[in-house]
Amino acid sequence: MLDLTKLTTETRNERTMNLDCMTPLEIATIMNKEDEMVVAAVKEVLPQVATVIEWCTNSLKNSGRIIYMGAGTSGRLGLLDAVECPPTFGTSPEMVVGLIAGGSGAFIKAVEGAEDSTTLGVEDLKKLNLNKNDIVIGIAASGRTPYVIAALKYARELGCKTAVLVCNRNSEMAKHADIAIEPVSGPEVLTGSTRLKSGTAQKMILNMISTGSMVGIGKAYQNLMVDVMQTNMKLVSRAENIIISATDCDRETAKETLEIAEGSAKLAITMILLQCSKEEAIERLNHSHGHIRYALENK
């Protein structure tokens, strides 16, 4: 019989013992109060988060990938972070990958028993042709998911960097990773419902990892998302606004330069700020590994 009683995420919260008697406002208020603990818990693990950001950045610079792995809520959060990278940062879908126990269909409907498999995680990584330049990040509130543990073991055998994002300390998963990020925000408002505080902590940290990594490889100039994909009218307008904000040009110039740059806001910004041709801007960006700021400093 699996013993979960020692896990912080599974213990009862003394402050919500009368949850079923609370008014809607009282429920909202106590949940809001409990969420304050998430911010504090995440703050405590920022050094570990920073290390993982650095490792992820290095992986991406070496043509590696960020691979998130989890089950249930944790797997869904990894998938969510991964699928947001292409539209936000203009990455290929293969650069940041989310794997969930039971396959993509498990995002909508749980696949019974998948998280307890000691073979599916390895199989999923083999399908991706995992290599030593990749980094594998296991996500689990409990820190005991067999699907993830087996995958971490396999990744380390290949020489990959590995990390875990777990909401309990001294977890089994942490024993099989190079680094453990362990934000512990206390028992859940609803006992064992780790989609609440644990899920919020995981989402916050995944935001940091993906955003920090993308900034590290030149996907931002100042605080602007200069590689944003223009897949709808709103994003076309956003790209123009980004160019205007970065260069202080008028909208007509932004539109014209964006067209010449074939939709690349990054390239358009570089052309305007350096007052150079498209070809020279491309050369400068290649030389600066995609960082606009470095391209400007080397003019």
Describe this structure in words.
Pathway: Cell wall biogenesis; Amino-sugar metabolism; N-acetylmuramate degradation; Amino-sugar metabolism; 1,6-anhydro-N-acetylmuramate degradation. It contains eleven helices and five strands. It has about 300 residues and is α/β, with parallel strands linked by helices. The chain has two domains: about 10-215, Rossmann fold, CATH 3.40.50; about 235-295, Helicase, Ruva Protein, domain 3. The protein has a five-stranded parallel beta sheet with strand order 2-1-3-4-5, sandwiched between helices. The termini are far apart. The mean pLDDT is about 95.
Brief descriptors of the model:
299 residues; alpha/beta; Rossmann fold; Helicase, Ruva Protein, domain 3; 2 domains; five-stranded parallel beta sheet; 49% helix; globular
Describe, in short, the structure shown.
This protein is 49% helix and 8% strand. The chain is built from eleven helices and five strands. Helix 1 (24-44) packs across helix 6, helix 3 (72-89) runs parallel beside helix 6 (197-216) and helix 7 (233-247) packs across helix 8 (251-260).
Helix count, DSSP H or I runs of 4 or more residues: 11
Would you give the CATH topology of the largest domain?
Rossmann fold
Q: Please give the domain count.
A: 2
| Top CATH class of the largest domain | Alpha Beta
CATH superfamily of the largest domain: Glucose-6-phosphate isomerase like protein, domain 1
Structural class: alpha/beta
Q: For the record, give the distance between the C-alpha atoms at the N and C termini, rounded to a whole number.
A: 66 Å
Q: Calculate Rg over CA atoms.
A: 22 Å
Unreliable spans:
none
Task: Give the proportion of residues in helices.
Answer: 40-55%
What is the number of beta strands? 5
Q: Tell me the overall shape.
A: globular
Order of helices and strands: HHEHEHEHEEHHHHHH
Mean pLDDT: 94
Strand content: 5-15%
Summarize the biggest pleated sheet. Answer: 5 strands, parallel
Any idea what the CATH architecture of the largest domain is?
3-Layer(aba) Sandwich
Order of strands across the main sheet: 2-1-3-4-5
